[in-house]
Amino acid sequence: MGKLEAYVRKGERVTIRDVALGAGVSVATASKALNEQGRMTVETRERVQRVAQRLGFRPNAMARALVAQRSFTLGLLTNDTYGRFTLPVVAGLSAAMADRGVSVFLCAVEDDPERVRLNLNAMEDKRVDGLVIAGKRIDRALPIALPPQRMPVVYVNAACPPQGVGFVPDDDGGAYAAVTHLLGLGRRRVTHVSGPRDFEAVGLREQGWRRALDEAGLPVPKAALFGSWSEGFGYETGHALMRTPRAADRPDAVFCGNDQIARGLIDALMHLGVRVPDDVAVVGFDNWEIFAQATRPPLTTVDMELKELGSQAGLTLLDMIDGKPVTEGLQRRPCRLAVRQSCGGQAR
Amino acid sequence: MGKLEAYVRKGERVTIRDVALGAGVSVATASKALNEQGRMTVETRERVQRVAQRLGFRPNAMARALVAQRSFTLGLLTNDTYGRFTLPVVAGLSAAMADRGVSVFLCAVEDDPERVRLNLNAMEDKRVDGLVIAGKRIDRALPIALPPQRMPVVYVNAACPPQGVGFVPDDDGGAYAAVTHLLGLGRRRVTHVSGPRDFEAVGLREQGWRRALDEAGLPVPKAALFGSWSEGFGYETGHALMRTPRAADRPDAVFCGNDQIARGLIDALMHLGVRVPDDVAVVGFDNWEIFAQATRPPLTTVDMELKELGSQAGLTLLDMIDGKPVTEGLQRRPCRLAVRQSCGGQAR
DNA sequence: CTGAAAGCGCTTACAG
DNA sequence: CTGAAAGCGCTTACAG
């Protein structure tokens, strides 16, 4: 058995044929031995496995796919090229899938229907078992002309058609948790500053904020303030808020619709000599480390658990592929509050 | 020909057999017709193509791969989960590859050798034609135990072994361009503030800065300042710089090692009442939109052209796969200066 | 010009 | 217990 390597033509990849030859069995037997299928003497099975090991045999997944009618491959289509929202999703998806032997193709499509077509065709040609379509906002669909051939599809952070399956963060719940945390720390006048009204996420976060105040029996201090997702808007609003004549009407906490707004707002407060969190506590949304950590003090913020979202989406897709029943419609997955210092006091 | 669909078993994917049946030719002929191979009457060829079209036939890429001994598939391994540097690379790679019919598997591996092994095995099983390995700093290798089977590999933003092929941004050139631009605008005392010394990129950017000053016959005003890649460091340094006793010793421009430092530095200057760019011009590095745009005034900064880097890497990998000769070693690709307002005056 | 055969690398009934 | 055969969906010499 020392001359095992003689069986494999040099430079060529080792195939199951080489293994069979080396173990002195048929290809069929080799296959069964390697896959723990069929009945045979342990001696044979082990011999085959030993040879395979020795030769560094790795079965050709495409050949297997051809017979299994299953490629153990997924496609990920996204228009979020900057990846701020999508990359964690992909990382979570990719990791969860890798553990199950499935690999994922990444298709960056911008918002160009032509590129969508191109990539969708590629995914069809490669016979992916399913598709995840990831966007950057939950109320917009990608310009996708019906994935082909009834291929299973799950949507993440994107609009999901009537009978579809989709995952998004629970914006309402995340907001509720943030505001509740603030209230638990004794804050009573919690204002909300957020992005553009036409984002569904904005409405949901506002709703969670409102719900928390209601349940605590607090009056909603003043309508939430809506603008853009930018630091600039946070900065202006910080100034505007502090311009309120009676101090008792000023907020003692601000729940922001994203971390950039929170960052700008904190800068404004600092600029005005208002102490954070002592005078005004601030909480953000996104847990975008680069902002959350750079803020002085570091920002308490809602984490959307995007990795988890990606892995859930993948697992569900696998179930669909296996023909298992999955719950239809949009699922809102829990967010997690990342507590740092801007909210004042880790606990109460 | 109206009953063409009768040839394809319902629910099943249409194969070349269905096309052949529908066109009344053999599978071999159908194949040749579709691939524009071999000789046959245009009539036959067109009939086959028409039928294929009609049936929505898409050839199974895995079956073709099996015979072509080529999967038209690439693997992308990265440890940059947050994707700040890698996502543009992937987008560029993915787009360029899609145009050539090759798809890319994304493997997010963190820095865990176990996951690297797992994903590398998956890539081998799937018989990818090549691998691109993308990192987040040019002087660190990923913990990769020799890609298997002499598979072609190209490195991006990562250390590259002796005989390897790699692509990184031209840090020296980018810095040189930035500083030259500043000098062209009349600045004479250009200081450099950057990240940790042990990053190779830091050394290269410093070198470009120095070179530009030398060529202009200007003395290097003072040693560059090295710290961390953070806003905080930029902020502190901004203060420190302005503390210099004699005004004539203070810089009239600062070239920063990244956009975060630039951002912090600008904040400090603003805080001190120093006008940007009037009193001090500032240039960053990275062109990370979220910072470059949020800065007041918007930041002039060096763009590393990461998308381009990704597409170049992919194209080169394709050449290697095709057995074409490619230039060995690390290639430093040009950066581009994104001119905004923080440098003062778009032109001279 | 067209088709039968062999083969890419595997797996899976089905015989022996 | 083991192996020959057929087949997954294609392509490519090679005959006719």
TrEMBL record, chains A, B:
Domain spans labelled HTH lacI-type: 14-68
Xref: Pfam families: LacI (PF00356), Peripla_BP_3 (PF13377)
Transmembrane segments: none
Keywords, alphabetical: DNA-binding, Transcription, Transcription regulation
GO molecular function: DNA-binding transcription factor activity; transcription cis-regulatory region binding
PANTHER family, per database record: ALANINE RACEMASE, LACI-RELATED TRANSCRIPTIONAL REPRESSOR
The protein's name: LacI family transcriptional regulator
